[in-house]
Task: structure prediction
Amino acid sequence: SQTIHQWPATLVQPVGSPLSLECTVEGTSNPNLYWYRQAAGRGLQLLFYSVGIGQISSEVPQNLSASRPQDRQFILSSKKLLLSDSGFYLCAWEPGGHTYEQYFGPGTRLTVT
Amino acid sequence: GENVEQHPSTLSVQEGDSAVIKCTYSDSASNYFPWYKQELGKGPQLIIDIRSNVGEKKDQRIAVTLNKTAKHFSLHITETQPEDSAVYFCAASKGSSNTGKLIFGQGTTLQVKP
Result:
């Protein structure tokens, strides 16, 4: 069966510091991968998606970037965090071929102080 | 642009009662409609979905209905239990996209009172 992992689970970082969040998927090949951000009490905002290694599409211009160095690894990064980057970051995977069925990871709670 | 509206934003029911959450979408090309349940501090969990070639789908106490003409779909939970308390999100596929992108509603907080 497929499993998706995210780490760290929680993170407190000062303004201006760098960020690296990691997402990995097990038990599948060639998944489509997604990064979302969820502000407190709000819906899901799509940040990035990837259909393959090195292929990244950005949905919203912002202070973040994403990379996919391996088939089942998706990384969210920032060079300098802003207060507005605080939130709950979710990674999701979708079986390749655009079934639209997205399965979410446990999330990372980021607090920028 | 494409939009999904979800109502109500909060819903409180007594244990054993039914709960209904409704969503409307704007993209006529949407053909996949999932529902997610998110418990506090956790990632959303896919609980049921429906594709446009089906009008209704049921899985034990939960069901989803779809009206493509009116562009709305609903989640029905019968015999609610306290463990059904969570935030529920609907979503619609972005029909014109060549990826599996979804457009999410803003969520409904369901409280089931014992």
User: Anything to note?
Assistant: Chain B touches chain A through 21 residues (CB under 8 Å). Chain B has a mean pLDDT of 93. The CA atoms of residues 7 and 96 of chain B lie 25 Å apart. The first strand of chain B starts at residue 4 and ends at 7.
